[in-house]
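Dear Dr. H.,

I hope your travels went smoothly. While you were away I took the liberty of generating a structure for the chain from your last submission, since the lab meeting agenda had it listed for discussion. I wanted you to have the full record in hand beforehand rather than looking at slides cold. The sequence, exactly as received, is reproduced here:
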Amino acid sequence: MADLTPRVQKLLAAFHAARPEVFAERAILATRAYARTEGQPMLLRRAYVLREILEGVTVLIREGELIVGCKTPAILGSPLYPEVACDWVEKELDTIALRDEAPFHVSEETKAALRAEVFDYWRGKQVYNRIMEVLPPEVQRATDEGLFFHYYLNRTIGHITVDYERVLKKGFLGLKEEVRAQMRNLRWQEPGSLKKYYLLQAMDICCDAAIRFAERYAEVAERLAETEPDPQRQDELRKIAQICRHVPAHPARTFWEALQSFWFVHLILNLETNSYAIGPGRFDQYLYPYYRADLEAGRLTREEAWELLACLWIKFNELTVVKEGGTAKASTTYNDFQNLNLGGQTADGRDATNDLSYLCLEVTGALKLPQPQVSVLISEKTPDQFLLKACEVIRLGFGMPAVFNDDEKVLALLHKGKTLEDARLGGINGCVELNVQGKDNMASSGYLNLCKCLELALNDGINPVTGNRLGPATGKPEDLRTWDQLMEAFRQQVAHAVELKTTYDSIARQIYAQFCPVPFTSLLMSDCMEKGRDYHEGGARYNLPLICGVGTGTLADSLVAIKKLVYEERELSLEDLVAVLRANFQGAERLRQRLLHRMPKWGNGDDEVDTLAYQAVDLFCDILEQYHNEEGTPYAANMIPTTTHIYFGDFTGATPDGRLAGTPLSEGISPVQGMDTHGPTAVVRSMARLDHARCCGTLLNMKFHPTALTGEEGLQKFAHLIRTYFKLGGHHMQFNVGSAETLRAAQRNPQEYQNLIVRVAGYSDYFVRLSRDLQDEIISRTEHGL
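The corresponding predicted structure, in token form, is as follows:
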């Protein structure tokens, strides 16, 4: 990997020294704009709010930066979005800095400003308030008791990958002309024409605001250049000023301009809303023409391009959002899942790997940062050289890049109704989710605890942890005399949970469409302008609703234990097993050890348990596909947890696989921690039994000891394992390469391991920043050899 330049070393050191901090600036600007525009159409108000923010937020250029633009004055600062939710901010204002999960410093000045200018205005007006006003009590009860966890309550609809290339090619002046053309051709006789008019007006305002935002940075660069004593830095600042005068108003002409234009768009998206998982998408595809042209013209060397990318990579890590306490427990990270894709296929099915793909991997390996979340798309056409380069970076031990099966991606997107061309051009967003850049509202709405559904099936719909009824009465244990009866009870509990979860989703989507449109995002999504429908109102070409299923491994191991002990070997009755679970195995440790170590386990190539895992996930998909969003698109499953396997574990009693109450569930589709004992090939054989193309993402986490990847032979074996899994139809793999001894040492002496990064779920993060429960869960994962 390349050596870090002095500039990059300084920027990295400043980032590593930064303290997460909350700022009130955006909240105050947004509140003032909302107050001043009351009574006007919401689409216009949202555009005026963004304009106020972009004209009023602090603009500064940090020492040595080549890519400029920041959300807050601090390197690791979080703005606030009171229009979405701020009741929790007021409630937790004095404790955010003290909590264990993703704490943020809040200055007394910030607290005073929020109390003086923000909180009072937003009482009862937040999106959060409007959702809670109409949310049925049974949905809230199920949420409170760990049946599911929602997005959208405190953050807007996410998993967004806009069409950055449109801005690079046309500039906002070009997009503004497209908006004006739509206005000129508006037919008032058509339904929705007034709403379309307001949306077009809002888009026009957003174009001007984005251009002015960049000009403000040009002005700062010009002022700094006047007093800069270093001639080299003075020239850089003047160049930055010239670039910010040109982009994003006009089409980018150079690689540097293209990167800066991209960053302004990405930054403004993050200032418009607090959407999670705003991803760059297939970055190497739309940036490559500028990179290649500069190299061919002699305007740029590969080393200079490396440094520009390194500066951008560091900027990605500035984008963080403070989370409500419960959300911080379910998603324990400062990262915001900015998934950057490399490789893959072209629209006509050719390999898309290029030199920029390799350069991005080199930068990623050299910097070892948690963001961007780099993913490589590997098809049968992908050169072995590129896969081996990715494996070299993985071997460095910080959990990147994640590896995705691009051939399976195409099949999955075709299954979701995409065209063949769009399926090939599709990519990864969030953790492992599939979407089509600039065309997709791939709305993952939260997580469903599948193990809780089994627990309810074993208890006639009663939550044994609280004694409350959460599900339908599906039979007491003594009534479930056959395996088919038990599985029918489980199916009904999952169906009821999905009914409740989709009820919440529909309410939330409609409220966001009415009260929180996103005209800037809509401007960069295909069909929103033409339809005259905001992104939150279903304006994108594709609108796919997702629900994440959590606990696959725990569920599969529990099902096989019940089937064998109760229904096949008849060693104990279901009533007796349920009684043992309610008692959390007190007085039954011998049985628990048998369940843990003498039963078939998911991830070991055992056909019996693998079949049950497939059937359980298939059942979940069957039920989801019976439900549709407002555009008529059926739901799809996404088998990932982020860190809700820890969160849900707190709410879930003992399970039939031997797991104790309150401990973590299994993660992703991965085997239960420590239970995959037959080697990595057995793991991938089991995982491949699932119908990955039917889902919209499945997450497989594996851990290897560093010695397994030593030398060229170790690297080749590792690459072969990936190819094998993908030939079997697997979707995704991600890896921790490190020893449990190192992680335990980091627990004992965290100050000595501040920059140690591990793969958590669909993302990487600093190990010492994770909660102790999450650290222990990562350590407990099986450590494989090759």
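Two observations you may find useful: Residues 6-130 form one domain. The chain is about 50% helix and 10% strand.

With kind regards,
E. W.
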